[in-house]
Specification:
The structure is a single chain. With 205 residues, the chain is α+β, with helices and mostly antiparallel strands. Helix 3 crosses helix 4. The protein has helices spanning 10-13, 18-25, 114-121, 134-141, and strands spanning 6-7, 29-34, 37-50, 78-83, 87-94, 101-110, 157-161, 171-174, 191-194. Strands 1, 2, 3, 4, 5, 6, 7, 8 and 9 form a nine-stranded antiparallel β-sheet that branches. It has four helices and nine strands. The chain binds a DNA duplex (13 and 13 nucleotides) through strand 4, strand 5 and helix 4.
Length: 205
DNA sequence: CGACCGATCGTCT
DNA sequence: GACGATCGGTCGA
């Protein structure tokens, strides 16, 4: 089932179906290495943002601004933007340069570096809120807006595959969180979760 | 330059 | 389940 972790290569990111990639990112391991300390967690919740035709995307209608510039970057770029003034949200860019496809990482199950995550978040103990929700996981792993535009082939932030695969029955598919203003696109089944995982954000589907 | 809003979170009920 | 904090980004004037 499990093997030595390998960094995902360009063949994973440069595909056209961002919804499929969002599904396949479940079970992969997001890693940051900062100050010689490795922090990592298994991805258990994702959302796809499908480019200029997706009303929930920052790139809807071809909009391209200072904030969303890195959404248009080459595959395996990190796109990090600030939400509600304080929360960095981490996205994986896919497809090809100038095609603004991204996958928002919404929750992790911690693996390495929990002590460092506690320091970064200021939490006294490692409860499920440590890496539940996109803002929380960014803080725990030390991801900030400064990371936006960086490559996921770097040694600072990257994604690994250790061979773990979730079965179809373990995966839940729902509409996305917090995108009510996207009208009909708010109903798209673009959110993927590991059923029953305590780190998945508990929200109404 | 000012007004508005948000891919959230924590707290309170 | 509801609500307010909080501030960067965006857009209009």
């Amino acid at each position: 089932m499990s093997r030595e972790p390998q960094k995902l290569d360009s063949g994973f990111y440069d595909r056209k179906d961002v919804v499929k990639i969002a599904r396949e990112l479940l079970g992969k391991i997001l890693v940051t290495r900062r100050d010689g300390i490795r922090c990592s967690g298994r991805i258990v919740e994702t959302e796809a943002y499908a480019g200029i035709n997706d009303r929930a995307s920052h790139a809807f209608g071809g909009r391209r601004t200072t904030r969303s510039e890195h959404l248009y970057g080459p595959p395996a770029t990190a796109y990090v933007y600030i939400c509600y003034g304080t929360h960095p949200l981490f996205n994986v860019i896919t497809n090809k340069k100038d095609v603004p496809h991204g996958v928002l990482i919404r929750a992790l199950e911690p693996i390495d570096g929990v002590d460092q995550m506690l320091i970064r978040t200021g939490k006294p103990i490692a409860d499920f809120t440590l890496t539940k929700g996109p803002g929380n996981l960014s803080r725990a792993l030390g991801i900030s807006k400064l990371d936006s535009g960086g490559s996921l082939f770097s040694d600072e932030i990257f994604i690994e595959d250790d061979g773990l695969r979730y079965k179809k029955i373990q995966v839940g598919i729902t509409k996305r969180i917090g995108v009510e203003s996207a009208r009909e696109d708010a109903e798209l089944p673009y959110r993927f979760i590991v059923k029953g995982n305590p780190y998945v954000s508990a929200r109404k589907s």
